[in-house]
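Q: Protein A?
A:
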Amino acid sequence: MDHSINKPDRPKYGILAVLMIGAFIAFLNNTLLNIALPSIMIDLDIETATVQWLTTGFMLVNGIMIPTTAYLIQKYSVRHLFIAAMGLFTIGTLIAGIAEIFPILLAGRMLQASGSAIMMPLLMNVMLVSFPVEKRGAAMGVFGLILMAAPAIGPTLSGWIIEHYDWRMLFHFVTPIAIIVLLIGFFLLKDKKEKVDIRLDIFSLLLSSIGFGGILYGFSSAGSKGWASPQVYLTIIVGIISLLSFIVRQTKLERPMLNFSIFKYPMFALSSSITMVLNMAMFSGMLLLPIYVQTIRGISPFDAGLMMLPGALAMALMSPITGRLFDKFGGRVLSIIGLSITTVTTYFFSTLSLDTTYTYLMILHAVRMFGMSMVMMPVSTNGLNQLPARFYPHGTAMNNTLNQVSGAIGTALLVTIMSNRTESTATELAVDATKNIVGEPTKAALADMQQQIAIQAMLEGINFAFFIAAFIAAVALILSFFIKRAKPAEDLNEQKSSYEKVGSAV
């Protein structure tokens, strides 16, 4: 495929800068919203089980769209894809910024996600074709640092905006930047693409959408409807059947959307399992912690964002260091140490109280993110290292898809666990409080008692969810002991060719 830019006198660094700014804005927008969730819950009068769809829905759309990007990149030019991606993202941002009800806000987020899902693989592809092999490392380093800046500044910037303005300002802040980047890309990108005879398997896309969507919707709905609701277990069953049908179909297609045959390589299969499990624990923490510090503790949005800044910086600064350590020691040692730190710190988050200090929360979060920074890249890289070169695109696409979907399902599951635990605890506390009431309480006393019960019940729900997350992280830790330093497996086609040569020689 040819994604080169036609004008040789125009530096590719300018084009890459436009693409990176677009990717940075998309990535930043996702990290901005976590701190805003408590404010959105109050303003739109919705529950935690509902508001978490703004996060899980975004990740789910990414998970569904990412497998189609290989087809899109082969079929269309960089210019057309960039304009489509930024156009979808900008329209979604505009819609979310004027939303007065939750369904409109969620629709805006879905549109943002569809644009973001195209943007990231597109940028990666342009970088690969723009730089020779000997210069790609430095280019990827700059790319990584730019994207790591988004989660570093996102929560703090979001907290400041929410503290001084309405939460909709988060979208109004991004909108003009997105429009400017879209216009610059429209005039700067001039590449053309020859027609390619390739078709998207619509039935596979439909099966994957129903599969991932059904499973996620079932887990998300359990928080408000209960596991016994037909709407919960039927959608999960339909999702599982559709997902299994999708996998079977991919094994029979000549050009599968996702190539599941790569799971026959044990280190790749193991690395995928570990990162999926860890994603389930990690994304839930990003959602539960802001709810705890703002809703229960009453900490301002800006201070809540500032509290998460050291953790984001630790992860960003550790990225290049972890890469060097991986080359020297391999993925097993790093993942065992990192997952041990992650498991212990996640357990400590399950012991939060109404007077846990701000400094303690900041340090504990920073240490937790430090531990996670030692796991993700080494484990994923070790798994990809075992694949033959022809499977690299399939391995990357599979990892991106599974990371998004597992993060979305993990968030939905743990928020459901938190909601159910909160409800059951509130009922128990209300019963106990009723037994201890002497005489007829005043309306003010009754309202104060109900507020205290609600806060205590939510605290118990968050602690229990973190406890389950610690258990999930412990599963990943156990799996990490089976990691071995991976070497590129011999391509089966090359192996067959060598056998044929030996046979003909004999």
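Q: Protein B?
A:
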Amino acid sequence: MSPAPSSPVTLRPIDAATHQAFVEAHSGSFLQTPAWGRLKNDWRAESLGWFDGSGADAPLLAAGLVLYRPVPRVNRSLAYLPEGPVLAGGWDAPYALDVLRTLRDHALAQGAFTLRIGPTAVVRRWHAATIKDAIADEQVRSLTQVPADVTDETGVRLRTLLTRLGFEHLAADEGFAAGQPQFVFQLPLEGKDEAAVLAGMNQLWRRNVKKAAKAGVEVTRGTAADLPAFHTVYTETAARDHFVPRPLSYFQRMVEVMTAEDEDRIRLYLAHHEGHLVAATTWVRVGRHTWYSYGASTSDRREVQGSTAVQWRMVQDALAAGAAVYDLRGITDTIASDDPHLGLIRFKVGTGGEAVEYAGEWDLPLRPLWHKAFGLYMARRG
């Protein structure tokens, strides 16, 4: 646990460089970087810092990117910290309560009707073998029915604290959280080399890695000029998997603002077989945390395992970058045999990683009538 602050915790805006350096140093979420605020240009972004005291040389204890979504024609907004804020001492720090209280007061002063946060405090972890056994059990429909291999008291205590402060937990919708995922799948890399990671994968994954190599799948790093090719495969994937794709301009803007902040913040990977693009992905890094962000694959030539090849290359590059975690992002908690998301979790479980449950996203009503009206509006939007 971090030592208690020697002076009252104070909150004030900070510049982008200070904010970026803090998030990097503590391997915070890429959704908490200043670049993410610049990408979300339909929101108003603000970088905040929490300090041990009010002096110019006061130590920085926490930082947060706040995104304000305004309501048209009125001076009110939703204040949202996706996967934030980031605390130097984690959510067990003795100043966590002060961070939440000062954030509440600041959001209220900024005209927010609701404060939404998404702390990445871990509550539970399930290892790959546990998940595999649960999937095989027809009586089990959700990970939440399975005893966790690890329960983290920090996340448990944080949920209790948020409830005590009046925050409302946003329930998952069909396994996914209201905004950012509450359940993610991560591959721990600390202290491992390529051989150890490969040995931890299941037999199918290892076989498919070898199959892709034998078939001659070539994985390369792309550039912004390759985004149209990526987007073509991505839109094919969206049609096949029944989701609404983002426009090409979104990815072009993403690469532009994220590489302007750090030239190695985001990477594009392309898997080709005999000159044909068969899979493409984006990879993001902050500090020692790496993420698989977006992925796409063609229906043609699926037998050459382009998706496996590109994943393995990103894991290898995460190791080379000194990452402690390779994050495959969201999963559902549902593991029933008739659930349409089961294939996704099976694919990720094959890496030998673990399912992680975060504390989730929480709303604090600051102006109850506005908060209720916004909730009704979102419910009607469906």
